[in-house]
Amino acid sequence: MSFVIVGLSHRTAPVEVREKLSFTRAELAEITGAIATVAEIEEGVVLSTCNRTEVLASPRGEVRTEAAIHRLRDFLSRTRSLDPAGLDRYLYAHHGIDAVRHLFRVASSLDSMVVGEPQILGQVKEAYNLGVQAGSLGPRLDALMQRAFSVAKRVRASTQISRNPVSISYAAVELAGKIFGTLSGRSVMLIGAGKMAGLAARHLVEAGARHVFVASRAFHHAQELAAKFNGVPIPIDRFREYASRVDIIISSTTAQHFILEHDDAQRMMRERRGRAIFIIDISVPRDIDPECNKLDNLYLYDIDALQGVVDAGLQERRREAALAEAIVEEEVARYHARGRARDAAPAIVALREKLHGVAEAELQRFRGRLGPLSEKQEATVRDLMSSLVNKILHGPTREMKGAGEGPPDGRVVEIVSRIFDLDAREEPHDTQADPKRSVP
Amino acid sequence: MSYWSNILLGMALAFYVLGVIASVSVLLARRREWISVIPGLALAGFIVHFAGIVMRGVERGGFPAGDLREVLFLVAWVATSVYLLAHFRLRIEVMGIVILPLVAALMLVTLLIPQGAPGGPGAETAIPEGVARAIRVIHIVPAVLGVSLLFLTFAMSLLYLVQERALKSHRPIRFFLRLPSLERCERLGHQSLTWGFSLLTFVVVTGVITAGYAPTGDWRWVLREKWSLLAWLVFAVVMYDRIFSGGWRGRKAAYLSIFGFSVMILRMIGV
Question: Is residue A407 less than 8 Å (CB to CB) from chain B?
């Protein structure tokens, strides 16, 4: 019994294709409901993000993997009435342990466009919730997805994969956090009302910063931008007096010379009585004299310095991603081992019961011919039968538990089940609760 | 006589050393998940350490602060408790990496000090037993507390400098461990310094009074205490500037705090 994943992502499909298969939440709920009606599919959920649409399903017991994959391809193309043949080349399909690995990697943000971006786990959880609501999520997928969540959490807790900024404006927030800790209640001044400065300011405000001041040569620009943050527009020539009060300055003017010289900054720091200030200078040519960074408690980052932070962050992410991959691999192996033992358990029980049943039945059949036996002889015959059966069982049991070198993916269990005509594999969950049920 | 307490204190040291080894492996092997075992090891050491101190008290039949050794064991123990409190209350996980090596080193040095070395006031004077006991309590208890709080000041100053240097050099990402923000380092450093300094001031005053008790007119304490006084003076400068001018916040205050702490510790172990 195995899982199947069919879908497309930024790795296999260009944006023109991806956008055709992207869904709103309401559509997604509907599709998730529809997946349960596919005959071959027992349980299924649909994951849809900007860069990925995929169906994770657990096919019915008797359905062959290829057939299930085929049906899911059809299913995906029908959601948007696309030509299945045309869509095919963009789709990937995984099954068995590869599907498990794929899910673990996706949930841990290792398969994301920006590796380590934190939203994906929430999106996988969303798919899970929709599955619960639509009733398309059963115990098998439930167990698998719960496992995926905890793998993702482990990856996040034990690596720094999501910690490093990947954009300049986010780097600014990160740095501000390293200086001030919490940003709530901090004040920001924008000098120059450029687009990038606005973006950085937005990130800072989202992180909790209050009191935004905007200084611009064109006062109406300052007013416009300030209105977006409930901020205060100020005339450009008064920025120095505000500079001694605010915590963060983002400068992006088009001035051709420094608007803040070393001496100005020194005076400013005296007025601030040593309170730290974070100055982000994203203009080229630069607005702030780079010498200012030598002043105590003043942290000046120009565009290159910010980019350096971003680059280092990306590099760090790649390093951390390798660590995360190792964790995922470990978890996949663990899941695999556990799954084999778990899947095999009902079949092993059934096999034992069956063989012991045969022995018992044959004993009854031949008992009459043996004539009268003493109690001790009777017990010896029983021991003989039982011992014989156990000896025969030893090899197959070990193989089914996966301890041997047998073929992977529960194939051994399947073969043994077929040879001995066991039907314990039909509904492993029920037979696990009541192992005697399948005994003839 | 002090057989059992020594064994327990040695065991405590072993736990602390394990904590230090864990810290080093976190830093070198970049295995962040190992950081979670450090407070556990510190806690184990802390408990055994406490048992060792109690055992020492039982062995000598009184508050175990009679000689330098016992005082230093107390200091190391209270410093660990300050660290554990700070860890569990404030969630600064890198703290263990800074404080545990200090505690371990202090324990090691202390275990090597011969027993009966003069340390507490009255140890080398012939003052009446009752007075000596009273002095011991009003002098030693705040001293131990104050010094332990200054461990925290030291740790926060060090973390401040690491973080500050990273930010100034525009390479803040290279630390895979979450350092507390500059603001937080400064605030905690200042708070611990305020309390530690107040206690230390009290200790210096009682120390002077104690010395005045010496009936033999032994003024060696001035020589001995010059380092204590220097440490006190350094901390006073940091406090003064922080309160009155604000000019020496941040880096300079951190350097000075570390200097003051080092002088104090070196004086304590009698270098």
Answer: no
